[in-house]
Amino acid sequence: MNSDRVDPAELAVLRAAFATDDGAEAPLGWEAVEAFEAEHGIALPEPYRTFVAEIADGSSSGPPEYGLLSLARLPDDWGDDQRARDLSKPFPLTATWLWEDDEDPAPDTDERLEQVCNDGSIVLGTDGCAMNWHLIVTGPHRGHGWQISDVGAVPFGAQFGFTTAEPGFGGWVRQWAARRAWYDAA
């Protein structure tokens, strides 16, 4: 996974996955993507960066279950009680954290939870019930996808043991497209 340079083969897979997607939003274009990056002090990881600039800025048909959000949006159930998001601060995790299983939580657990939800990631969408998919934009896991819910945070990709899919945005979309094709054929 290279989050700094787009792989033409990976981009071809993304184009194919959304070629017949009636729910796909128009792409933002490079000027809007670069303006977003400048505003937030980040560089979006590839292939997501090229995806939103040239292919689609979200899709009502997914992935995930309730659709792929536009670049600057948050899920409807996000809530107003969280602190401001800061995409330029590094995402704080590099391994699964199930805070629901913490028998003796650290004194800074609440602050760390705020960081997990608000620092260094954009929200790709939701599977419902506050199970949100994030794309990490800063920190050691830049380019990786994570599912963050009310019980914990789990990285996406075969190397983390929770799926056989490749990590990152491209692997996440490929898994969704394969599942969608399987259901369509059934």
From TrEMBL:
One matching Pfam family: SMI1_KNR4
Chain ranges of the Knr4/Smi1-like domain: 31-140
Lineage of source species: Bacteria, Bacillati, Actinomycetota, Actinomycetes, Kitasatosporales
Identification of the protein by name: SMI1/KNR4 family protein
